[in-house]
Write a structure and sequence with these properties.
3 domains, OB fold (Dihydrolipoamide Acetyltransferase, E2P), 5 strands, single chain, DNA polymerase, domain 1, 9 helices, 196 residues, alpha+beta, elongated, Helicase, Ruva Protein, domain 3
Length: 196
C-alpha cells in the first residue's frame, strides 16, 4: 500500500496533484489543506490512502497523519465513500470537524456540499465516541477555557451529550460533580444532571 509520497510537483488542479517520485507520476486526489501545502512549491509531500476497487485504483492525499486518520474514520461510516470523505475534510479543518462531531452539530456538518442531514447524523452517531476524546472545544468569548476530562469521565461526557447537552456543558458539570466529591460514573452523572 502507498502510504506516503514525496517528490516533484508536476501539476496541481482544483482537487488533484501530480507528484513524480522515482520516475513515476502519481495522480493524487487531495484534500484542500494538502493542496494548500503543495501550492507554489516545486517539491512536496502527502500522506496517502490507496483505494483498490474493481473499476479502478485511486490515491487520496492528506497534509498530515492526523488528517489521514480522520479520513479513515469518516470512510468507516456506512454511506461515506472516499470522495465524500475528501469533501468533508476540504469543507472544514480536522479540529472543527472533531468538535462538530463531538458536539453533535448536524447543521455544521451538513453545510458541507453534498453531505445530507441523514449522512451527517450517521457520521455523528458512529464517530462521536471515537473523536470526542480528541476534540478541542473552543471557549466562548469571556468564558473560562474548557478543561479536558479526566480518564474514565469520557463515558459520562458521552452520556450527557446523548441527553442533548453540549460537550462544554457536560464537561463543566462533570468537573463540578468531581469537585463536590462524586467518584463513580453513576454518581458523577447524577450530580452533573443536578448541576445542569
Amino acid at each position: 500500500m502507498i502510504g506516503y509520497l514525496k517528490g516533484k510537483i508536476l501539476s496541481l488542479t482544483a482537487d488533484t496533484a501530480l507528484i513524480e517520485t522515482g520516475g513515476v507520476g502519481y495522480e493524487v486526489l487531495c484534500s484542500a489543506s494538502a493542496l494548500s501545502e503543495l501550492s507554489g512549491k516545486s517539491e512536496g509531500e502527502v500522506y496517502t490512502y490507496l483505494q483498490v476497487r474493481e473499476d479502478g485504483i485511486s490515491l487520496y492525499g492528506f497534509s498530515s497523519p492526523a488528517e489521514k486518520n480522520m479520513f479513515l474514520k469518516l470512510v468507516s461510516v456506512s454511506g461515506v465513500g472516499p470522495k465524500m470523505g475528501i469533501a468533508v475534510l476540504s469543507g472544514m479543518d480536522i479540529n472543527t470537524l472533531a468538535v462538530a462531531i463531538a458536539s453533535s452539530d448536524i447543521k455544521r456538518l451538513s453545510a458541507v456540499k453534498g453531505l445530507g442531514k441523514k449522512t451527517a447524523e450517521r457520521i455523528i452517531l458512529e464517530l462521536r465516541e471515537k473523536v470526542s476524546a480528541t476534540a478541542e472545544v473552543p471557549a466562548a468569548k469571556g468564558a473560562a477555557p474548557v478543561l479536558p476530562v479526566q480518564d474514565g469521565d469520557e463515558d459520562a461526557v458521552v452520556a450527557l451529550m446523548s441527553l442533548g447537552f453540549t460537550r462544554a456543558e457536560s464537561v463543566g458539570a462533570i468537573q463540578k460533580a468531581r469537585a463536590e466529591g462524586a467518584s463513580t460514573i453513576e454518581e458523577v452523572i447524577r450530580a452533573a444532571l443536578k448541576n445542569m
